[in-house]
Amino acid sequence: MPAHAPAPPVLCSFTSSAALGDALAHFIIKAQKESIEKKGRFTIAISGGSLPKQLNALIGKSGLKWDKWQVYYADERVVPLDHPDSNHHLCSTELWNKVPVPKSHIHTIDFSLADDLEELSDAYEKELIHEFAQKDSARFPIFDLILLGVGPDGHTASLFPGHELLSEEDRWVAPIEDSPKPPPKRITFTFPVLNHAYRVAFVASGAGKAEILKKVLDKPENGLPASRVRPASPGQLYWFVDDAAVAGVEYPRTPYKL
């Protein structure tokens, strides 16, 4: 992907969480269709937090080709895969256990390597290399879609304000042993991976997000991690939010048509 200047984010706001979920599901299905028509597969990465609950809206929708999905985690907590803190566990509870996505297409961390975070993150990076290196002629993987959330401090994935990982420019996947939000041990995609994606979509809802979204959307020069997610053209950044989350935000909305 050529390293052109990022396009402005597209902000789509909805009156309710249900309306947001329906629009997000439509957006994902459309992205899936375009990707499969182009190259026969759909590569998607998902973060944790409240995001997986929004993916419930995909259940029962038509047009989903689950056998073509290749699923990764934009970040993961280094806990057993059935632990309540595991992003994989949350996504499985909310979605994977309810749809026919092949289990071999869901790429999880190898928890047997938990005692060595460097080895664990390297192993997960190799999962990405296996999927992307022989198919995409780029230094970094080009995901069809990465879905992210944003924390009250402006962190996204497991990239936290002021952390040394914000300056990582070479690794695809990096370990973090001192996350300011528990659990402390995690792995995360780096900014080069996030910013090489063809589409990145933040998902946020509720009045509790209003303060941080005003900072991220109206003052992106602040350097907060979420503000630094800006895919290079032809990539595009989207925000799917409800009205409560962007109360007071001045950044212009773009109507989303189903």
From TrEMBL:
GO process annotations (BP): carbohydrate metabolic process; pentose-phosphate shunt
Listed CDD domains: 6PGL
UniProt KW Hydrolase keyword: yes
Domain Glucosamine/galactosamine-6-phosphate isomerase per the UniProt entry, residue ranges: 17-239
Gene3D superfamilies recorded: 3.40.50.1360
Protein family: Belongs to the glucosamine/galactosamine-6-phosphate isomerase family. 6-phosphogluconolactonase subfamily.
The protein's role, per its UniProt record: Hydrolysis of 6-phosphogluconolactone to 6-phosphogluconate.
Protein's name in the database: 6-phosphogluconolactonase
